[in-house]
């Protein structure tokens, strides 16, 4: 365990001497236990073993940040961890190589870390502390053991995956995919500030498309109530109530029906819920949110046929490669291509576009007098 600045500085010297791409890292956060999640633990491993850094007790994480900015590091399922690093230190490693991406490109259908460890080493990782509160101190010994298990096999596993990727001539696909994932992580982080458009506001939950303007206004008010409750309680929003509950209440209010708080909800919280509903009821119709603007994607027969043709081509390539078709292109991406082939294809990665355009379907041209 590295718990002091001096220990961290000594670790920095050792870690900086490692060859490029020969280190692995994992992170633990307390997102299941706090409103504003914190990066609570950093698991590091190289050829010499595992070290665990405790950022909650080290006053100055400068040596770690300096190392991070100049290193090429292996991680697994790195999307969430990249967001944690940017929130905590406003930076990312020079390169993140993701074993989950490698596994998917090789056709693994079960590509979680535990599944891969069992596949390669016949060892079942314990899930006992998967939902533990990593913000609590002192850290229990069994939690430390769990944290080590997340990285101890990864360097050897990365070597095996790279060998397989090169054999199948997919290593370049892997590098491009990792680079694109890092770019997307940066965009998500920088685009998540005050400049978020009303159409992309966080209260527009998945499933809200069935609501009219009144229902959306109810959802916005309820979402803001839940966020305030979670912030003051310092707990994740889902512990106040679920997204499904917010959508159900919004649908009821949309139809001018009353809602009922769960019987186990704190009385003070219930009072504030009904107060938020009262505030919503006083809104003028002009204050209701706008309905989402449709982008004009008409599902006409000719477009549907073209999407099906692209899907058939994608599925054939996926079957030949032994991979999930969605990693070549998602249904949404195929629809984009069907509506505007040049623009849609330009948004794909090079390797995806190369696979998809091999003997690609041709759009039928219509001539009108």
Number of helices: 15
Main sheet specs: 3 strands, antiparallel
Structural class: mainly alpha
Give the proportion of residues in helices.
40-55%
Distance between the termini: 77 Å
Radius of gyration from the CA trace? 25 Å
Q: Would you identify the regions where 5 or more consecutive residues have pLDDT less than 50?
A: 365-369
Average pLDDT works out at 92
Q: How would you explain this protein's 3D organization?
A:
By secondary structure, the protein is mainly α. The protein has 15 helices and 5 strands. It has helices at 5-16, 62-69, 78-89, 99-105, 113-121, 141-149, 154-167, 171-190, 213-233, 243-254, 267-281, 301-321, 331-339, 341-346, 350-357, and strands spanning 24-29, 39-46, 49-53, 72-75, 95-98. The strands form 2 sheets. A 3-stranded antiparallel sheet has the order 1-2-3, with helices on both faces. Helix 3 (78-89) packs across helix 8 and helix 12 crosses helix 13 (331-339). It is globular. The model is unreliable at 365-369 (pLDDT under 50).
């Amino acid at each position: 365990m590295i718990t002091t600045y001096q220990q961290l500085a000594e670790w920095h010297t050792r870690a900086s001497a490692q060859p490029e791409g020969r280190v692995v890292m994992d992170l633990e956060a307390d997102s299941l236990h706090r409103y504003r999640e914190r990066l609570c633990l950093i698991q590091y491993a190289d050829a010499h073993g595992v070290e665990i850094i405790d950022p909650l007790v080290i006053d100055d994480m400068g040596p770690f940040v300096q190392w991070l900015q100049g290193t090429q590091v292996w991680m697994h399922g790195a999307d969430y961890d990249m967001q944690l690093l940017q929130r905590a230190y406003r930076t990312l490693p020079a390169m993140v190589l993701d074993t989950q991406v490698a596994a998917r490109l090789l056709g693994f259908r079960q590509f979680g870390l535990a599944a891969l460890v069992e596949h390669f080493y016949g060892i079942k990782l314990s899930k006992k502390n998967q939902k533990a509160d990593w913000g609590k101190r002192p850290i229990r010994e069994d939690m430390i053991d769990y944290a080590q298990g997340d990285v101890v096999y990864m360097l050897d596993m990365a070597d095996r995956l790279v060998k397989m990727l090169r054999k199948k001539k997919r290593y370049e696909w892997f590098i491009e995919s990792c680079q694109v994932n890092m770019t997307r992580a940066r965009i998500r982080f920088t685009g998540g500030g005050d400049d978020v458009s009303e159409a992309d506001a966080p209260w527009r939950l998945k499933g809200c498309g069935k609501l009219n303007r009144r229902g959306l206004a109810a959802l916005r008010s309820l979402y803001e109530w839940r966020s305030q409750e979670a912030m003051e309680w310092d707990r994740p929003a889902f512990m106040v109530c679920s997204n499904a509950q917010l959508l159900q209440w919004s649908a009821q209010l949309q139809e001018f029906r009353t809602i009922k708080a769960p019987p186990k909800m704190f009385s003070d919280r219930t009072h504030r819920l009904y107060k938020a509903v009262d505030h919503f009821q006083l809104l003028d119709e002009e204050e209701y949110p706008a309905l989402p603007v449709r982008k004009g994607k008409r599902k006409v027969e000719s477009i549907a046929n073209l999407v099906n043709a692209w899907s058939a081509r994608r599925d054939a390539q996926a079957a030949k490669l032994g991979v999930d078709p969605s990693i070549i292109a998602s249904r949404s991406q195929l629809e984009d291509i069907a509506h505007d082939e040049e623009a849609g294809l330009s948004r794909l990665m090079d390797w995806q576009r190369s696979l998809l355009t091999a003997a690609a379907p041709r759009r039928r041209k219509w001539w009108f007098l």
